[in-house]
Specification:
With 201 residues, this protein is an alpha+beta fold. It has ten helices and four strands, in the order E-H-H-E-H-H-H-E-H-H-H-E-H-H. It has helices spanning 15-19, 23-32, 47-55, 60-74, 84-99, 114-122, 135-139, 144-149, 164-174, 188-192; strands spanning 8-13, 36-43, 104-110, 158-160. The chain has a four-stranded antiparallel β-sheet with strand order 2-3-1-4. Helix 3 crosses helix 5 (84-99). The longest helix has 16 residues, at 84-99. The radius of gyration is 18 Å and the shape is elongated. The two termini are 36 Å apart. The chain binds guanosine-5'-diphosphate and magnesium ion.
């Protein structure tokens, strides 16, 4: 079994994060916890690239639709359709418009439990409900209700892979092997080595 410190995850700063000059702030949150940046680049994604990204998970459209329908019901509102695939398709169309609007900054982070740790720091999908102290909770105020009313994607600054398995597929989708750098950070000695030695003179 691979050591937990080998785990990698994919993050991208969405166009709203770039426009709000939050690239550095977001990057710092992942860096300061001890994760290692092993790949980074900026690009303007195409609609097919965005679609493929979400559909790497074959159940995504249905799951996104079911989640959205549940959200409407919790608020006592009638969803625009009861068919999860159809609602999921609408969410995807909105995401394509949102993510192709400008540059995004893609990053691959490596370290112990990278996927779970990055999700914790990033916060829940809907900024209105994301915990205080998380990036989405602290830096943006959007809600599903407002996004749905205005027929657009919720602006939540960041994409972060849902699991290490999801991450591996997403990393391959966005990065070629030669864009990922294998290197050692001196700080990893203190984070991971069994014996903390070589400190005292
Ligand atoms: P994430 O992994 O936290 O970004 O969330 P998901 O993978 O479940 O969904 C991807 C994106 O779809 C989110 O960032 C939102 O933009 C959008 N989305 C997901 N669920 C909903 C929902 O219930 N309602 C609306 N309006 N958008 C949603
Ligand atoms: Mg997701």
């Amino acid at each position: 079994m691979a050591h937990p410190k080998e785990e990698r995850t994919l993050v991208f700063v969405k166009p709203d994060g770039v426009q709000r000059s939050l690239i550095g702030e977001i990057l710092q949150r992942y860096e300061r916890v001890g994760l290692k940046l092993v790949g980074v680049k900026m690009l303007v994604p195409s609609a097919p690239q965005v679609e493929k990204h979400y559909l790497l998970d074959p159940g995504w459209k249905r799951a996104a639709g079911e989640k959205a329908i549940k959200g409407y019901e919790e608020k006592g509102l009638e969803p625009p359709s009861r068919e999860p695939e159809e609602i999921g398709g609408r969410v995807l169309e909105n995401l394509k418009n949102y993510l192709t609007a400008g540059p995004i900054v893609l990053m691959v982070w490596q370290g112990a439990h990278a996927a779970e740790l990055v999700r914790k720091i990033t916060g829940g999908t809907e900024p209105l409900r994301s915990d205080v102290g998380t990036i989405r909770g602290d830096y943006v105020l959007d809600s599903f209700q407002m996004a749905d009313q205005d027929k657009r994607a919720v602006r939540n600054l960041i994409h972060a892979s849902g699991s290490a398995g999801e991450a591996e597929k997403e990393i391959t989708h966005w990065f070629s092997a030669d864009e990922l750098v294998k290197y050692r950070l001196v700080g990893e000695h203190i984070l991971y080595d069994v014996n903390i030695d070589g400190i005292l003179e």
